[in-house]
Design goal:
This protein is of the alpha+beta class. It has one domain: Nuclear Transport Factor 2, Chain: A (Roll), CATH 3.10.450. About 20% of the residues lie in helices and about 40% in strands. It has a 4-stranded antiparallel beta sheet, with helices on one face. The longest helix is centred in the first third of the chain and has 14 residues. The protein is globular.
Amino acid sequence: MSAPCPCGRTNAKGQTLGFADCCGPLHAGQPAPDAERLMRSRYSAFVLGDVPYLLQTWHSSQRPAELKLEAGGKWLGLEIKRHHVTGADSAEVEFVARFKVGGRAVRQHERSRFVREDGRWCYLNGDEL
């Protein structure tokens, strides 16, 4: 059994899925089936410090040239508030991510927009709520 997935996704019995059965395959190159799963896999990438995955799953029109993660940050959890399909190849995911940095608790509440191109979901942008 693999370690619990950082995204916290559970099965029908309420048990946390293992990384190998949840975000792991996406990190290995499998396309996300929907925007929520991509959002979860991106959260896991932040937890694991997987900057190449974050950049790869960012839409090319919005992708930064480089991404530096906050040193010493500790991710505490992800809550998906809403997954809303807005079109055949677009969706929004509202989430709350909690983390600590420098001993200070931070709560990031965002509505993120995603688009699907060539069969792959990509993070486009988001609004802080």
